[in-house]
Batch of 4 targets.
Target 1
Amino acid sequence: METVEINLEDQFQARIDADISIEPKDWMPDAYRKTLIRQISQHAHSELVGMLPEGNWITRAPSLKRKSILLSKVQDEAGHGLYLYSAAETLGASRDQMLADLHSGKAKYSSIFNYPTLSWADMGCVGWLVDGAAILNQVPLCRTSYGPYARAMVRVCKEESFHQRQGFEIMQTLCEGAPEQKAMAQEALNRWWWPTLMMFGPKDADSPNTAQSMNWRIKRFTNDELRQKFVDMMVPQAEFLGLTVPDPAVKWNEARQAYDFGEVNWEEFWNVVKGNGMCNQDRLGARVKAHEEGAWVREAALAHAKKRAERAETQAA
Amino acid sequence: MLRPMQVAPSETPALNNYSPEVRQQLFAYVLQLADTSLILGHRLSEWCGHGPILEQDLAMANIALDLLGETRSLFQYAAELEGQGRTEDDLAFLRLATEYRNPLLVEQPNGDFAATIVRQFLFDTFHYHCLVELHKSPDAQLAAIAEKAVKEAAYHLKWSSEWMIRLGDGTAESRQRLDKALATLWRYSGELTTPTATEQALQAAGIIPDYAALRPAMDAHVAHVFGEATVPVPQGVFMMTGGKEGRHSEHLGYILAELQYMQRTYPGLKW
């Protein structure tokens, strides 16, 4: 038995190393399956919970055009949630169980959504910075080893890059507008900058799962590598907008050909992960409420479908 | 089944040829349609992220987006008819509550999913059948807007009709909730087909459909859906009116407080 197991594991790793995608019916180690279910469902949950901070501004959007764009964007996120839940289902996870894990707090979602959206400029920052960070995390996932996940991510990334441009465009409009609009943009950047740097996760030295995930090619870059890329991409964009990144340590390093930047407040990061962010309770509470209040609707749909099927059977008989 | 429009397209006066009076009536009517889609779209968008199941969250956002698209076309046309240099956003965001002309039905709160479905079904039944006829209007702009919107409204009506049936013929709880929603909302359905003086004038001029002529098809659809849902069609209910003439329920003020917040707080800025 053991020999067979080792062979399967070797064959599996050989496929991974040759960049051949793993498909639902292929043999895979339990730990690989579990890691993927955890990662994909967390990602799906993040899309679902991520609808809330932006949904918060749909009814207050400042123009009909912006309202339309924002509503489509939040709707895209619901769509991403659907593809990702479906991808996780191919690994044997059920949507009901994944949702139960979200609601019980067992499964996590991106901590960034536990920050409040306080002004219209937050719709700009969420698109520009949060979606920008998400894209850096997600583009490598288009080549991740598990086929259904990689294919879902191709679609997600296309839409995300569109969202990021929209976010930047909101910021640009504010920065080219009246002084109070520019102040709104700067105030939002001050609040969102550090939390978006935290989106890449703990420092490599404190990220125990990174090595295994890199080896399985579920992950392709380390947290610190992606964080550096993000800073290098965003600092010039902030300068272009005429905004100041709220980190006095940001400075171009000629030798490294990259920006130096200050230390993330890891205490805040872990606090928000543990549930102590401004909105943790509200976000999860809203999801649980929607699910519980929707129970009778789902039951009615099932009951009606069953009645129809029974009637069809009676007629056929 | 429906009475054809009295004016054939070839006899249509071009926009500039409308008399000032008709032009004013048409402006008021287009604004009424725009307000209706705006307010219902606003209500549906409140569901975003809070739906009973992800697929239905998507469906409601979809309908809200369709209505918002229709709203924009209508406000743009209204602005053109008015000719005072106001934009779609001026019209959507910078009027007083008494100047909004949506029927009372669409400003009613979302309530539970059953209330949202009943509100949507009653609106969709009217909206779809009205658009089918409006599409033949001699007013080319209205006809073009209706042509696009009627395809979307057909889908909305299918969606809300299917949910009426599921909820009516689902579980005891869904039936009880549907009954409760009907008891609250049916009384707002009559306003949709009760023409105001403005609508009567435009109907007489053959520019918009005669609502009485829409009734047979609407009633037949309602009877079919209620039959499938095993729910009796409410009879003899007193009908509330006033929204289309600017007499609203208390709900509209709160909708506008959110809707107008940015435009009122930062007057005259570009977003």
Note: Chain A touches chain B through 45 residues (CB under 8 Å).
Target 2
Amino acid sequence: MMAKQSRQGNSEGGRRQGRRGSGRREAFWGQLTNWLDDWLAINPDGTVTAFSGKVELGTGVRTALAQIVAEELEVPFERVHMVMGDTERTPDEGYTAGSMTISTSGTALRNAAAEARRVLMEMAAERLDARLDELTVQDGLISLIRHPQRKITYAKLMGGEAFNLEVTEDVPLKDSKTYTIVGTSTPREDIPRKVAGQPSFIQDLRVPGMLHGRLVRPPSAAAELISMDESSVAELPGLVKVVQRGNFIAVVAEREEQAILAAQHLKVKWRERAALPPMQDLYTTLRSQPTQDTLLVEQGDYETSFKQAARQLHASYYQPYHAHASIGPSCALADVKEDQITVWASTPGPYPLRGALAQLLDVPAEKVHLIHVEGAGSYGQNGSDDAAADAVILSQAVGRPVRVQWSREDEFVWEPKAPAMVMEVHGGLDTQGNVVAWDYHVWSPSHVARARSPEQLVAGQLLFGQAAPQFGFSFGAERNAPTNYSFPNQRVTVHYLADSPLRASSFRSLGGAENTFANESFMDELAAAAGMDALDFRLRYLADARAREVLKAAAEKAGWEARPSLHGKKKKMAQGRGVAFAWYENDQAIVACVAHVLVDATSGAVRVKRLVVAHDCGLIINPDGLKNQIEGNAIQSLSRALKEEVKFDEWRVKSVDWDSYPILTFSEVPEVEIVLINRPNQPALGAGEPSTITTAAAVANAIFDATGARLRQIPFTPERVKAALC
Amino acid sequence: MSGEIVLIVNGKPHTVQAAPDTPLLYVLRNELELNGPHFGCAGEKCGACMVLVGAKPTLSCHLPISEIGRSRITTLEGLIEDGELHPVQRAFIEEQATQCGYCVNGMIITTAAMLWKNPHPTDEQIRAALDGNLCRCGAHLRILRAVKRAEKLISGEEEE
């Protein structure tokens, strides 16, 4: 059933031309505006308000964007106030995703600030009766270089008025050599609030007259309501209403603990179905579905060169479902009134969610005011959009503002998971150990099922039933499926499935992490088969100077000694090192990771002692903020590689709490050493995801180096390591 | 129902309205409108809801208010004295020791309690003390550095 669409190229994953194209992608990245006042306002008190349609997801972009504005506009950082993700105040920049905030919103704000500075200088020249080249500007104050007493502030020039003009193309930008704010580790503005317990999160938001909602979800996505006994909670204190529409059930109460109690006590009978494949058959299920295929790369003559290769290798790699597992379960507030609907949500896409909620309520989108409020870290699409839909349904039902707080179990069971995937690689070596053929395949559902319409929200599915799976817009599995290695003969194919057994959507890097796990593990397998050093082996196929520098920087910091992998030794406690390299999306940030591990051959336990990450994301905006992202990526991706796997049976998701979905703890966290390579003359690229993609392969390769055991299935549990050792 | 339960929170008595079996967390957040302790798992597994009961770091998501008695409860907000942040809070700012910051409450509460009991913990003791506090963003190394910095701030070696 392979409906082959040959040679579509890398358009969906491509960045340069594609991201701002037409159609669906435009909706994904929003409606762009060149109107200067959409981005910036100079306030009478000398402060500057900057508007971004992106949102803060706990990565520090609010600070980084303010740095960019302050730098380009020549005002102190403290005077820049960011307004983000509000459908009545900020531009529509679609989703905050894909490590794109710095490169898109950052670029737009930089251009807007440069335009504003240019206009202000012209206004000042007129007011001060001077030529432009006689003027200088500092801290929002323009003065004559030779007569500093002749001066005027931005605020005075603007007089509270708007600019009323467009940002021109090719507006002159500051030379990065003169930067004093961008490139510094400006402390994050949110941390003092958060360590002092000041309200910072959606969970901390309270509105007058607010009620508390809790959900009574079906035990599984395919379950159907048989009956509900409302009298089972009739006597409970504080209960305002039991809301039931289709399979959607929730309780609303005056107090939060009353809502929890009512949700626990409400008697509901469900009819469940065995709608999921048995977990042990997950990967054969993924491999046996009809697919839509795209040949992403075709170079040289793969078939002939593979047949003629001196050695032929094959390997399959397996990625289970992963949970975003936000520490704070999703929460949202809604106030549905006749004439105005206000929704507070920690959504990554305020405008697209507004559209979906408007459809859900059957009102025009303009009637919905969506305000982003920060939630716990989400790393992609967690339950936050779904919670917003729950809140509007409940507020509509009771006619008062309702706060919905998902339980821990709601989050684990109902959040969209990072999709399970199968990767298969075939490689050919010649007699000198050169890679003469490379054939890569990935099977995956779409990594993006964002909430643009009601049926993509849990509440919509419970209200209207689940849509039959069909091929549609698929995205994300192609990410980093192609390598940046110059193999003479190669093919890369993505096989999209129509559906995912468990609901799936974007998780940090989309398919980038899984594809890199497979690609970089297989590179290691080829290097070992060729009897070569894993680092040298990679460098043979990397011509780009920046890429080579990143790989070498990681190796140098890690104290890498050139030698083939020491596979085959089986000491009780074996040490090993492994390397992995990736160029995020093949043209974004460049990352290399070296892992040092200790493997207990008796128990199979893997202890990662040290991760060294080298990172080139062009111009660095905030070095400490960048290091924070890299450390976080390294630790979170290690947690995923060593421990994480969403469990399910034919009926239900079985990973429902921190016992059934454990993550890395303090005692298990390795040292992370970082080499930042700054490129002041290169564009600033996103760093929220790239360093998440190299960890799993570096660790798998280190386990192989230590023991000879090749781990091809995530997570690398002690049982799997032991099995691979035999 | 039970207007007679009085909790001493951050040095002040509060007469609470909630039923006696209500977990402390909801009273702190919804009646006292405190934002330090967070709802995380309601299963005593993640540490987001931590407060100090006396000097003991305590999970508040299950603890019924009827069991607290006259013990003094201190939340993240209560570590601030006369507008001055606690040294542990300062250390977390200086080390920029959060990403999203949702878990930081439990990290600071655990650290403050640990350093009272043991002013100079070893690295292993610090990690062991924090093992019950989950962080999903991967801010662990920064948090460990913040604990070391707090240790120095408290012992006066690095007062600035």
Note: Chain B touches chain A through 57 residues (CB under 8 Å).
Target 3
Amino acid sequence: MLQFILRRVFYMIPTLFVISLVSFAIIQLPPGDYLTSLVASMAATGETVDRAALAALEQRYGLGQPVYVQYWKWISGILLHGDFGQSFEWNQPVSTLLWGRLALTFMISLFTLFFTWIVAFPIGIFSAVRQYSWGDYVATIIGYVGLAIPNFLIALILMYVAFKFFNQSVGGLFSPEYQDAAWDWAKLWDLFKHLWIPVVIIGTAGTAGLIRIMRANLLDELHKPYVVTARAKGLSEERLLLKYPVRVALNPFVSTVGWTLPALVSGEAIVSIVLSLPTTGPLLLRALMSQDMYLAGSFIMLLSTLTVIGTLLSDVLLAWLDPRIRLTQ
Amino acid sequence: MQNQFYRLFSLMLVLSMVLSACGSAATPAAAPEAAESAPAAAEPAAAAPAAESAAPAQEAADSHESPMWTEMVAAGTLPPLDERLPKNPRVVEPLESIGQYGGTMRIPYGGSWSSRLYSFMGNENLVVWTPQWDDIIPNVAESWEVNEDSSEFVFHLREGMRWSDGELFTADDILFWYNDIASNTDINPVIPSWLIIAGEPVVVEKIDDYTVKFSFAAPYGLFLQRLATPDASSMLEYPEHYVKQFHGDYNTENLDELVEAASQPSWVELLQSKTGSRDNNGPGWTNLDLPVLYAWRVTEPPGGNSTRAVLERNPYYWKVDTEGNQLPYVDKLVWDFLDDPNVMMLRTLNGEVEFMNYYANSLQNKAVYFDAMVEGDFRFFDQVRDTANSLMLHLNLNTKNEVLREAFQNKDFRIALSYAINRQEVIDTVFVGQGIPYQGAPKPTSEYYNETLATQYTEYDVDQANQILDGIYPDKNADGIRLLPSGDPLQFDMILDATRFPDWVNVLELVQIYWKAVGVDMNIGGISGDLLEERRKANDYDATANFSDGGLATILNVGPFLSPLGRGSTYAPAWGAWYDLGDGAVEPQEPPDDVKRQHELYDMVKATADLDLQRQYMDEIIDIAIDRFWAIGISLDMGQYGVVKNNLHNVPLSMPESWNYPDPFPTNTSTYWLSQ
């Protein structure tokens, strides 16, 4: 087992190197550079920018240098000094921007994850065990509706409802009066009052998917001979269900649980933009749109690293959960 | 000489449009401002408050400042008001009423904070526009003199005026900016073009602590106008006493440590990361220590991790109202960063926003706001855009495609395409009925309005269009598309920034249908703004849709529709580059004689301060533009608006909107006040 983990960690090094090359190449792909995008966005509001100002910016950001020089500057900064570079657009170090937004992003994502699981697993099990029952149909309909409506639309509708019927300040995570207040119970309560909206919105789509997967997996297992055997031996229905088929049905979840790690960070960009949440998703999107290359590159790098680590975690978890996989290793 | 000044000021009547648009509500402010604008008079109104605060006035001073400061003054942590104000503060006549101190203004923004903060409060230049955009009045400079041929400008600063940290503001700060920032090639490789005339950069001299002289190698008739625009923003935002510590020529003690601590490559980047409201992409707004001359100073900076910025009143602000009360009235500004226009709209509808003039004010939204006006307790104000047209269709007369170039350079071809457009239908469907058919031309209220230029070829006349085109390209293919002499169908792409301007795509979709009906196949190339910018720089496009700034400030913005020069002239970029390289890298080509004549005339406009001569030259430029018929316009740009809460006062019913008039600042945002 230890050897298995070590080998996997070793493989990560070349993978990450290739990822760094690819992510840097990707952010260089769009035409022009950060200044092009700056000029384009200024032109869109009728602003003019002097040639002198552009020359000064180009010099400051080192945008005239060849790509390999820029890559070396970036990667050596990360490896040697842990310095991800400066964000052009925000005029702040990339690391400050990333870490500053991670706490809230993690919080929202974790809440969403728990919300999804708490809702999806029982419903999934229920609709598999009581297939084609009245409850199964209701759960299925709700699931499909959640899956089919785009998240941003639910966000807009929920915000409109919050504004129209509850007179609540929409967008953001705090009411204006708590923005700069110190942390206390009232502020925490205010946060929860805002938090449920993104959690429910992001959760609905995920919940629907999970319900369907859980239902399908479980249906595959329920009619296998070992279930019949166990039942014949007199095991109680709940114990039987939870101890054997559900455990087997969980395999696909565990093998994909690693992917939630990058999702925790990238968050739901569109929902966050619509709700004006200070999470990492909108930051990444903006960085890509404005060609803020060190911020975008570091972001992609971070997400890729998390995916690689997440995959490792899944493999380890899966090996732990399922002896069959452990033995073939 | 006195006469000369008056000529200079009245020259600004160029921008007279706004007067009529503002209507009666805005006019009360006009009279005193105009009196102020006589430099020799040096603000007669200012004498009263100055005397008041200078003499026995301790008790009077107490009542003339925000309660926020009275306590601090009593506690001795802040000098009394008369020590904070200059001897001769700028007196601003509030639009409607003398205000009450206090309150918080909430303003939503999206996109770049530097532009929005700048245009709300940052445009504190030596001189500023009047609220009506029809004249130039003193601001940081209390008065000025200009020599006979407009090549030397002497500005008198306000004695005792202070930065927001309490240090004196003097001529040295301006010299520091010019000598050590603008002319320092480490920081600025190129001197800004607005400081160069006849190829020579300006010479700035200090006459005494409160007098500066700008001398140019040749007459510069538009210098004062340039000074009032955001071009000149950097001049007054480098406080010498503070910025020196980051400057390699001055700090020889601990500069390396500062650079190291900020993990910047060198002192140049360090300095650039600490300064600039517009320079260096605006990091000055995030630096809490940077002393400013603005009405409010940043206390909670904007940034990647915050969803808002907070600004509080500047204790040393150097303007007072007509009763001698120190401005601004409002204590605090809260800028909420909302990336999504729908959220911005919901907040505005809910009455959670005091002032909204960007992003969420599309024509389509207006009806929704209208329905919620009473409940949300807000009102509208009109925005009069500086644009000459809602959308200009630019066929590239310098395109690299030879066959198309020949077609586009044929004026009759462009006339036929113009006749083929059903403008009224476009106005009704896309612009919700706002506007009239119009070409690229100064607005009807502009001094340079020209009926022929504005309305030629705007009739919807398919027969005439076909008749003209039949004369040029009679053959058609099976799809009814006309054939070029080469045998290829007459086809081209019109590229535009589809992400930022979805409305424009809607217009083009209609135009595509109209043009197809006369046998011309135009494809809409909706591309990203970045790609558009790259292709424009490389002159790699056949046609594009573009802005037309200069409908009001025509004299400052000739490029977009009168004569090719600079970046707005995408209808003939190579001829424009011949005159002025702009910021792009378009290969210049020698233009025809009439275009050269236009360039020559515009040089003459810039050089003279004689209003009649300027008018005469501009008229000749316009005559050539009529004859040239550069580009095809759609409609007059109308019906834009902003939203203010009903308890916010002194906001005009109408204001211009332009980058050259960075709205709403020239309407004196420091006099806005909130009734509690």
Note: The longest helix of chain B spans residues 611-628.
Target 4
Amino acid sequence: MTEKYTMPDARGHFGPYGGMFVAETLIPPIQQLNAAYQQYLDDPDFVAELDRDMQYYVGRPSPLYHAERWSRELGGAQIYLKREDLNHTGSHKINNTIGQALLAKRMGKTRIIAETGAGQHGVATATVAARLGLECVVYMGAVDVARQSLNVYRMKLLGATVVAVESGSKTLKDALNEALRDWVTNVDNTFYIIGTVAGPHPYPAMVRDFQSIIGREAKQQCLDATGRLPDALVACVGGGSNAIGLFYPFIDDKSVAMYGVEAAGDGIETGRHSAPLAAGRPGVLHGNRTYLMADDDGEIIETHSISAGLDYPGVGPEHSWLKDTGRANYVSITDNEALDGFYALTRMEGIIPALESSHAMAYAMKLAPTMSQDEIMIINLSGRGDKDMQTMARREGIEL
Amino acid sequence: MSRLANTFETLSQSGRKALIPFITAGDPNPDFTVPMMHAMVEAGVDVIELGVPFSDPMADGPVIQRASERALAHKMSLRRTLEVAMEFRRTNQHTPVVLMGYLNPIEAMGYEEFANAAARADIDGVLTVDLPPEEGENCAALLKARDIDPIFLLAPNSSADRIQKMDAIGSGYLYYVSLKGVTGAGHLNTDDVETKLKEIRANTSLPIGIGFGVKDAETAKTLASLGDGVVVGSALISKIEANLDDLGQAKQAIFELLTSMRQAMDERSI
């Protein structure tokens, strides 16, 4: 097969997934957003401004680092880390918020809203809003506000209003509900910066396009460093924006295997997890059809993960499509395994990963030894672990 | 003629407007709903919108979200909501019942099975908040084939061509969301509604129900003069919420509010 990958279709469908499942009031703003996005996608001024910001504000390109000691220790594939943790604000999230904020500015919107789980997307949004002088409101589940207090403080410092959402399970999905309610009420002046490759069309495609700078750079850097393409890509998947960002530019390179790592929480068999691709079923939530964690009646089930950023009952629709077509493999890692990944990278390479990214590290520890030493694996190190210091210290019985 | 079309036709002949209450099935408990539906009919309502509880009601305000949470705590579901409707129908064959909810419970059941189950429960209309016409043609066709009206939303920012699209795919009535916001919001501007209704009327001949932000008899009267029906939801559910320890009182308060709305809507305006 040499057919080029062209998903989604004009109406935002990835096969049966994706689409535009929203209440009528949101249809006009989504159509406006899509028109603006199509207009600026190839606009030389827009692209130049975005490139400049990526270079001088975010600090791109992020390095592709050969983790030689860890590779030797695991005794298999050569492991390369795509260092998104080194971006301004500490994760891949800013790649997307810069893009959407520039779009908001061109569309004349004066107010930015966002949802956040771990707070990384909220911080990245508050950051670009501060820089562009836009009002910013971030919705965050009350449970997440408690477990990510450092990021809450950062957002407030940056001038954002952080709204603790008390409804439902008080986590990321409820923050998304609340942000949608705000948007429907303030559609005229407000731009909703969704942080992941979910939501109604065009968000899954648009966020992917902004994040795919990760994969484009990684591909070139891998060719430069080794003279060939990698054999495997590994990334954690909550909504799945960092994973799609890495995978997308490699989709037509069929020799490159892709592994998306979901959060198995206490273990898939316990039901306390956040792994819709591993243990969910297709359904409709937050504007798109995708794999979801729902019960037989279609009610959304509460999720669990040690990492707030993966604690979401859905997943980007493109991942559902890549799963069904078999182009990508989806696996899962428990909380305890993720902690092993966290400590391994910290001690072996002197890099403290975010708990989200630690899921990818943990899977790499299983996969790398099954590969040969002349094979290459790229792991997306999507964020740094600074925000998780309180969580980790508390687990070790230390109050900071 | 469908029960909904018949209802609007009869009302129109007598120069009256439809009073359409919304309650969530199973709120605050499953035993409350059917007697409440009958009491609402006694108060003079013409159509009942029966909310299907959903865990993530994105288009609803806090009042209706809490109604969903109370119902879900009693394991209320789409299947059990259909049972509620069926029980109501045993002793009332004339009041149309419209299911209002979100798509995922229908996805979980399967569109065809849902359409069959809704037909068995003698449901008259289905309004799925997050199923716009672009994604909803398949579902609408399955419903229409069983004489169930697919009901669509219109918003203040819906363009003329979208109104025509709803006119083509929808039937029964169109539900005009009178403000940009969630259910139960408080900033209804009747001048804006009047202007928009003219545009809507120019593009569809379906009856128009107006909802979101209807709090009292006075608002109901004003909106009744503009549309063909008035939908009231959060204001009713607030009565349940205020009387959770005395549900007889909740039922009485809802009856009284609907009666006052009925009277106000039926007063001849100049």
Note: The interface with chain B takes residues 11, 19-25, 27-29, 167-168, 173-174, 177, 180-181, 184-188, 281-287, 289, 292, 294-300 of chain A (CB under 8 Å).
